[in-house]
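During the no-cost extension, the postdoctoral fellow (Dr. R.K.) reprocessed legacy sequence entries with the updated structure-token encoder. One reprocessed record is reproduced below for audit purposes.
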Amino acid sequence: MKCCNDVCCVCVGGEMFRSALGKTLGFVGYTIQYGCVAHCAFEYIGEFVACSGPSMEPTITSHDVVFSERLSRHLCRIENGDIVIAKSPFDPHMNICKRVIGLEGDKVCTSGPSDVFKTHQYVPKGHVWLEGDNLRNSTDSRSYGPVPYALIRGRVCLKLWPLHHVGALNQSPTGRVVKRSD
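Re-encoded structure tokens follow.
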């Protein structure tokens, strides 16, 4: 009789193990599904970005939070004047936040605001010219040249933080955006 009880105890223990294993695998499955949905949302729809550094002042300051949408990049709808998040041409692990000053084929001024002699360059095919709004304190295309379009991660469309500045972002305070003559 003791043997039967031992067998019964093993059966009950086996059922408990199967139940726990089933619940664990179910949880792992849901976690993977939600992870995939979150990945697709951040990769193809948009993401929240906390900004740091002075290069986009006064438009965006350190600790501002913005929403960067990805659809414009995928649909090739990036335009002059847009603020974009892009991979740094120097460090692929770092993102930069800059304003699009020129698109492929545009003639852009490559000199700084205090330069006496102004120099110009044409933006090559498949590239954009990016500059920070704070021209005196920005490392941008004036330093590293045109940026490949493929490095653009998204277009900044909203400032979300601080709350008293929530809303769409304003035009370039520098006036350096190239006007297209299409």
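The longest strand covers residues 152-161. The helical segments are 2-44, 71-74, 141-144. The remaining legacy entries will be reprocessed before the final report is submitted.
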